[in-house]
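[audit] Reproducing an earlier prediction to check determinism. Same input, same settings, fresh worker. If the tokens differ from the archived copy the diff job will pick it up downstream; this log only records the rerun itself.
[audit] input (277 residues):
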Amino acid sequence: MTIRYSLAHLTVLGCPTPEMVYVAARAGYDYVSPRLIYMGLPSEPNYSLADNPEMMRQTRRALVETGMKVHDIELARVHDDMHPTKYLPAMEVAAELGAKAVLSSIWTSDIAYATEKFARICELAAPFGLSVDLEYVPISSVNTLQGAAAVLRAVRQPNAGLMVDMHHFHRAHDKPEDLDELPRDWFHFAHICDACADIPADRAEMTRILREERLYVGEGGIDVASILRHLPVPVYSIELPHLKRAREFGYAEHAFRCLESAKNYVQEHAQEIGCFA
């Protein structure tokens, strides 16, 4: 299996979407995974193309000029007092740009409620030809492989998927062989990165590393190859925020180093993983 690579927006979050496309193209990525759903987090830019026609025009132009493609968009969060239809404009943009998937995660402790809302997001995305891929996050309500699998079994939506992030998988103490027990058609892509082997006990430190200091693949203590060996996905989306390096090298160089290190790692472990860079 030949792997294709996508640049996840969190890796270069300071880049507006059109700039992100050009950065990804120069670095040699196959896809981009832009954050087109504004989450309102402190100091986080708003790249909602549905609300910014000029940025949408610039993004379309960048995609045409570079030949880049959009793989997935993010982030359709499930949280208390939310209405899934608010994600429809972003889904329409995603479909127009040729995206394949919408990334989602769950941030409410009411799992019955979350399951209902996640199922509704899947229903809304289906007419656009989009899968909705659930990512479990160590600081969210659904934070383990088992918890995410339980939601997917409950919703029974044909376009529902499971997105595994190397950092999150390691922090959850999940076992790679447990992936073999899950339906193969749940898996569409994965997030790759590395991180320190020690798992922070402090939530704030966990969050800081998650958002600000992930490592190049092969640089940290996560056995990435052993996880990927059990993941039959053709696309690796590199989500590797490292604020210090991005400031030091610039976003373009950081994105290039992310891809270069990932390809080198995959090539080195190609036989174990069962794929090629």
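[audit] rerun output stored. Observation attached for the diff report: The longest helix spans residues 251-268.
[audit] end
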